[in-house]
Design a protein that fits this description.
Layout (H helix, E strand, L loop, with lengths): L4 E6 L10 H9 L2 E4 L16 E4 L11 H13 L3 E6 L9 H10 L3 E5 L4 H8 L13 E5 L13 H6 L3 E5 L5 H10 L7 E6 L7 E6 L3 H4 L7 E5 L6 H4 L11 E4 L7 H9 L3 E4 L4 E3 L5 H8 L6 E4 L2 H13 L11 E4 L2 H8 L14 H7 L9 E7 L5 H8 L3 E11 L5 H7 L6 E4 L2 H11 L4 H4 L4 E4 L2 H9 L6 E2 L5 H14 L1
Parallel strand pairs: 1-4, 1-5, 2-3, 2-4, 6-7, 11-12, 11-18, 14-15, 14-16, 16-17, 18-19, 19-20
Antiparallel strand pairs: 7-10, 8-9, 8-10, 13-17
Helix pairs in contact: 11-12, 13-14, 16-18
Length: 504
Amino acid sequence: MTSGKVYLVGAGPGDPGLLTLKGKQILEHADCVVYDFLVNKELLRFARADAEKISVGRRGETNRLRQSETDQLLVERAREGKTVCRLKGGDPFVFGRGGEESQVLAAAGIAFEIVPGVSAGHAVPAYAGIPITHRDITSTVTFIAGHEDPEKETSRLDWSHLGTCPGTLVFFMAVRNLPRITQALIDHGRTPTTPAAVVQWGSLPRQKVIEGTLANIAVKASAVTSPAITVVGEVVGLREKLNWFENLPLFGKRVAITRAREQAGVLREELAALGAEVIEIPTIEIRPPDSWEPLDAAIRRLEEFHYLLVTSANGVRNFLARLAASGRDVRSLHGLTIGAIGPATAAEFARTGVKVDLLPTEYLAEGLIAALGDQDLRGKAFLIPRAKMARDLVPRVLEERGAHVEVVTAYQTVMPEILPEEITRLFAPQADAITFTSSSTATNFAKLVGEDHLKEVLRGVVIASIGPVTSQTLRKLGVDVTVEAQESTITGLVRALRDHFLKN
């Protein structure tokens, strides 16, 4: 079999947004992903569903592979003809053993590439508001492996130079040796009052920063565990004014989202951009209808309809997909008056060049009816492709106004299988807020946790609803709604949640 190839990819310090475009591309095409413990597991969603995913564990875990075993694993998978993405925290060549692993691959005759990543050495201080260089303060910075004991007889580090070097010092993996490191720096000439900071879980919403001086930082940060970066130098003093990340409105808040996994992207990204730690609890799964025939039959008779009303982005996607499957395209929609319930639904049409005619100001079924105004609908034919289970308000009102309405199933929502212990794990520690984007997300969440335990699970949690219909469903379940979006969109929901936490 033709030998495969290994890509040593830097995953960045933690924030999944710091993965490079090339790293993402390789991850998406890899047959096998071998990843370190400190790699954000969120990145694995970019991998193919059928890709082999292997964790090499962390130090102290019983199932952790030794470095030699990891090396052999990479060689074996490549010899099987596989494309291997070796996903490493930070940058592979900055204290990441990328050099050692690539040496093994070279010796084995395995093709490999290095894909640099964003190093924790500069990214973590940046997320803490600490520029490691500054024109008015220092133009030099030194990266140092902090796991080496300064008191051992022979050292690869020149402590006399580090003690007198005027630039910024950035220590990796130094928390265990921090008392000895700080003392060694002071003993070799560094001023005890030199500013210092320890940044734990840098670039993630759980980021924690301990500030002090060289004389007291070891005591102040004595409870900190890895992963952490230690910064020593006058630049630490700039954090007071440059601390941008921890000032984001949702920084440190754990927010659970209950949308279908394939729909969660925009909501997750908007919340993360505001500093939230996002927990995904998909309570609905989007599936095709039991049969496409009713929708296909309606598409074959498309010329018989005057209006096409679609109440969700899923409905648009599946309608257009079946339109193409029937050998037709969007030109077949000419002459139809097209209505969409909201901007996200209209955007799905816009991707294929279709402009909607009816877009309500209130993004609800009631708004769609209002957008029709006082038009005479007697004898008009409406096609409504929608979910299998949905509100009957629109069809009922249209029929009352004399219209002929054909409702066809374009998709169905089902409750995914999530074990109760998985829900418990996701809520440990407790979420600060949970979002509900439809009535089905609310009812399915209640079923997943058990209606008898619903109030207990949500005690103290901010309940955020996308709009009045979802809020009404939550109240029927006995749940008090804390926040309701004024505009029933994802952006409106995020804005409402942001305003709530800023106010409180």
